[in-house]
Input
Amino acid sequence: MTKHGIRYARLSQRTWLKQLRNGAAEVGWGRVSLGYTRVGPAWRTYRPTWTDGQVFQLDAARVHYVHDGAIEFRTNLNNSQWVRAGSGDVIFLSANVPHEHRLAPNCRYATVTYARMQMKQRGKPCRIKDHLILVHDAQSSCDYLEKLSHNRRNPSEFSSELERGLLIAFFADLFARANKQAAPAPHTLREGQRDRIERYVTDNLETQWITPPELAKLVTLSDDYFRRLFKATYELTPQEWLKRRRIEHAAYLLRISPMSISEIGYALGYNDLSFFGRQFREVVGCSAREYRRRER
Output
């Protein structure tokens, strides 16, 4: 496949990692702001339309990490099947692949960190064979991206070596997770059930304290069976997943809202603010006050 007459070599996942070890990648960073989201001045922001009918074909691969809201992609433009990425998910889009993207239906906003990457093999541009890779609940994978971003903002004499190592770790982890999630898994939640749960949680985080039994009832499953399917699907218990979603939304509010930390905790259903503070530190790695000071 070519773009402007340039032929792209197609690499396997393992060869892609080998090229990273050889230092063949050039990486850029930014944050996409969609809908009503605002972002801090440290990030470059642009506001694409993200509507049906716009076809993009980029000369670089992109890794998208969804902080808040939900987005959708599709690479088969003759097929109506969209791939949805919600909060905590990662989409890797290969270079030179025609695609469409949009805000997910019924979603008012999305904040997406992205890494833009150009890879070369023997001086010629290349891309991975997979057109699009989706990994659910990839927060641990994206810890590497946060470290990469920090490395860019705070360079040292070993920055290039550190960046190369973090890129290898990120993609090795991402590919392993993607391959595991793509393996046959008959005892997991169906796609429609996942979408229903994620939309419900997104729409109700600030209006009620959502519980696992409530989600089980939403997809018409018994509590015990739902817990087993949920853990097999997300590799997290429903309680842990809900905690992460609340704290990720709290972090979003800390970035864009004038609300006080206490008001945010109460808005998300935390009656005990010290409990909110402990959970925030567990998920984010710092206090809510430190996070707001760093990100605004």
Summary: Residues 191-295 form a domain with the Arc Repressor Mutant, subunit A fold (CATH 1.10.10.60).
